[in-house]
TrEMBL record:
<dbReference type="GO" id="GO:0008999">
    <property type="term" value="F:protein-N-terminal-alanine acetyltransferase activity"/>
</dbReference>
<keyword id="KW-0012">Acyltransferase</keyword>
<protein>
    <recommendedName>
        <fullName>[Ribosomal protein bS18]-alanine N-acetyltransferase</fullName>
        <ecNumber>2.3.1.266</ecNumber>
    </recommendedName>
</protein>
<comment type="similarity">
    <text>Belongs to the acetyltransferase family. RimI subfamily.</text>
</comment>
<dbReference type="Pfam" id="PF00583">
    <property type="entry name" value="Acetyltransf_1"/>
</dbReference>
<dbReference type="GO" id="GO:0005840">
    <property type="term" value="C:ribosome"/>
</dbReference>
<dbReference type="InterPro" id="IPR016181">
    <property type="entry name" value="Acyl_CoA_acyltransferase"/>
</dbReference>
<feature type="domain" description="N-acetyltransferase">
    <location>
        <begin position="2"/>
        <end position="145"/>
    </location>
</feature>
<keyword id="KW-0689">Ribosomal protein</keyword>
<comment type="function">
    <text>Acetylates the N-terminal alanine of ribosomal protein bS18.</text>
</comment>
<keyword id="KW-0808">Transferase</keyword>
<keyword id="KW-0687">Ribonucleoprotein</keyword>
<dbReference type="InterPro" id="IPR051556">
    <property type="entry name" value="N-term/lysine_N-AcTrnsfr"/>
</dbReference>
<dbReference type="InterPro" id="IPR006464">
    <property type="entry name" value="AcTrfase_RimI/Ard1"/>
</dbReference>
<keyword id="KW-0963">Cytoplasm</keyword>
<dbReference type="InterPro" id="IPR000182">
    <property type="entry name" value="GNAT_dom"/>
</dbReference>
Length: 145
């Protein structure tokens, strides 16, 4: 059974390992540690018996928030883990009077785009050549809550 909780320093090594296995330009352990120390940033981890299997980061400014990253171990995908992480982040954002949440996603990441739309995010614009390694456009999505 998957348990969602707020990320703490004890989770950083496992989170960074997942990050490195998925993203072409991964965050370092130091980047995660530095982010955790900010008052306006929250990270959530999905945990099973073997440890962290996914995570989601949120950066909050006034009454809006940005999803900074969402990742799930490749062998744990298609089981609702990312959805659980996002739902927890959205629930907490609502409780803090956040009115909208934005994110960007690679245009080719159809599975993530499908999930975000299912949750209620809408595509609002595109950022040309936003991503590097490989160069790709980003779809900017918004959820009003």
């Amino acid at each position: 059974m998957v348990k969602i909780e707020k990320m703490s320093e004890k989770h950083i090594a496992q989170v960074a390992e997942i990050e490195e296995s998925i993203f072409s330009v991964p965050w370092s352990q130091k980047a995660f540690k530095d982010s955790l120390e900010l008052d306006n940033t929250a990270f959530y981890v999905a945990i099973e018996e073997e440890g962290v299997i996914g995570y989601c980061g949120v950066y909050k400014v006034m009454n809006s928030a940005d999803i900074t990253n969402v990742a799930v171990k490749k062998d744990k995908r298609k089981k609702g883990v990312a959805k659980q992480l996002l739902k927890e982040a959205i629930k907490d954002a609502k409780s803090e009077q956040i009115k909208e949440i934005m994110l960007e996603v690679r245009e080719s990441n159809e599975a993530a785009i499908f999930l975000y739309k299912k949750i209620g995010f809408q595509s609002i614009t595109k950022r040309k050549k936003y991503y590097k390694h490989p160069v790709e456009d980003a779809i900017i999505m918004l959820l009003k809550i």
